């Protein structure tokens, strides 16, 4: 993403590409978009705003002047219309992350994949229905690095009269994890492209846009949740960070995970979460500690070697309300003194991959017979894909991330993306670019074409060409079953796959030096982007796209694009 953008914007090839997509998969039967029983309308004005953090005032791009942006609230099966007006000089597009966009790929949002961006002074209405979806998702910009500040929650409640599959909390709180730069992120992206190197670490990590007390000029810039002892609370936690994975924990408190990526999970207890960019977790937390203050910590997880990043923790506060009892003045003063200093949590080491893997392995989908979460893992596979992913290097000394040795260039060509590498070797430990194995990447414009209804299995293999690293891979248009992960190179004869209660996700963190296997059913026609959710890796080309053909049955044909689809 972001390769020859000026060329694309100065021609009509993107518009041609979109219509080529439509005519290539549409069998001539035009169908209307899904409509929910309730339609909810939101007005997003993308505009610049001044913000003061770290002792400096900067100009950032926001929605409605808010950082993070406004929350979209809806219920399962509702239709949502979001009118986006671009009041900035930059191009913009909005992605509803995790929304499966049934028959509405035109509103999915990735620039130059399903739409041209919304240009300065123009607007576009995103229309979609939340069919069979509920839980915590989010929305964000999907062009350039504007996602750094252009993002916000998408909260989908169950249908009216339907409860949660757990004890209802007394309150719910949304916590968005993010990264903050003092420098302009557009300029930062240009620097990364021109230099060929990785980006510098951010200047701060944020909880709901607030930095916490450890940063300069941030003593009062603290996100605080007030709780009552003995009560249960639901925290909806979203990692909207640009390039960093993060731990989250609350001092002296155990969390119970009940949802990931908008899908209910079997409850399990944990003292910390690790979220890749693009992932969401819902957790229950009980206020069962002594009256006082407890830090909520956001700390970096960085398994890659020699990668620059901010080695600092940001804090919010979980504050217990004081009981309304009469005490003498001396006791009251003593209580104030002891409660002013929040307790700190135990934070995993920055590269504690073993603990991260143990945490991830606990995530299971809710019991198959449970009414909220029927499991329908495809057992007969129509298409198996083996994708190697990792960091690579061009001969011109420009670093490049690639998927299967192909670095995606966003142009109008449509051909077949390879199903597997040309050569199989020791992907994790093998020496790169030696005589027997050429790992030099190629610039490609291919997409992988899938027949409607195919059961698709994708094997992601991390590679050590430059160095092993964790890659959060996000698939647009679908959720998928994460059947398993394993150490080293994938071997079908020894791989253990969970076909009983695998988690249902939209973003998988392919582990360091490991493999991951997912399955999904290609029953949603359209063009669907798949990419690493580390923005720098998408910029370097770690991305591809699936083109899912129309089916023959009812509601299996992609409707034509809307008349107000933006032009390049």
TrEMBL record:
Per the record, GO CC terms?
Answer: apoplast
- Where, subcellularly, is it found? Secreted, Extracellular space, Apoplast
* PROSITE patterns hit by this protein: MULTICOPPER_OXIDASE1, MULTICOPPER_OXIDASE2
Name the cofactor(s) required for activity, per the record. Cu cation
Domain of life where this protein originates: Eukaryota
Q: Name one Pfam family in it.
A: Cu-oxidase
Q: Name one GO biological process term.
A: lignin catabolic process
Residue ranges occupied by any Plastocyanin-like domain in the UniProt entry: 46-160, 171-321, 417-551
- EC numbers on record: 1.10.3.2
GO molecular-function terms, A-Z: copper ion binding; hydroquinone:oxygen oxidoreductase activity
Give me the reactions it catalyses.
4 hydroquinone + O2 = 4 benzosemiquinone + 2 H2O
What keywords were assigned to this record? Apoplast, Copper, Glycoprotein, Lignin degradation, Metal-binding, Oxidoreductase, Repeat, Secreted, Signal
Q: Which residues constitute the signal peptide according to the record?
A: 1-32
Task: Tell me which family the UniProt entry assigns to this protein.
Answer: Belongs to the multicopper oxidase family.
Q: What is this protein called?
A: laccase
Instruction: Tell me which species this is from.
Output: Gossypium darwinii (Darwin's cotton)
Q: In the record, what lineage is assigned to the organism producing the protein?
A: Eukaryota, Viridiplantae, Streptophyta, Embryophyta, Tracheophyta
